[in-house]
Amino acid sequence: MSKTKTQMQILADQLIAVFHEYAGKSDTIDKKEFKKMINEQFPDCVEYPQNQQGKDKLFKDLDLNKDNQLSFEEWTRLLGSFLSCAHIKFHQQEGHHHHHH
Ligand SMILES: [Ca+2]
Questions:
Q1: Ligand 1: centre distance to CA 30 (Å)
Q2: How far is the CA of 96 from the centre of ligand 1 (A)?
Q3: 40-44, 72-76, 87-91, 97-101: range with highest mean pLDDT
Q4: Domain ranges of the chain
């Protein structure tokens, strides 16, 4: 196997590092850590507004097994919507008349 990491492997390492930064030793993110993470890492492109209620709802939606903690797997669901939104913004910044095949 090649020692050079692929773009996706590098991105995965970075995403895991962000998760661990907020999850700490528990390896899960609780509601307090979640709010800090949203404020610091997701300035835009989250499904809910930047208020307490919106964050509470988002946390609840992501917490599939309702244990009041976000596991890494639960947390990755946030990334999907964040990436989709970032992708739309990317194309908006390119200009409306620019099309790809
Ligand atoms: Ca959970």
A1: 9
A2: 39
A3: 72-76
A4: 7-94
User: 10 Å Cβ neighbour count for 54?
Assistant: 14
Q: How confident is the model at residue 34 (pLDDT cuts 50, 70, 90)?
A: very high
CA of 63 to the centre of ligand 1 (A): 4
Please provide residue 66's backbone torsions phi and psi, each rounded to the nearest 5 degrees. Answer: 55, 45
pTM: 0.83
- Tell the CATH superfamily of the 7-94 domain: EF-hand (1.10.238.10)
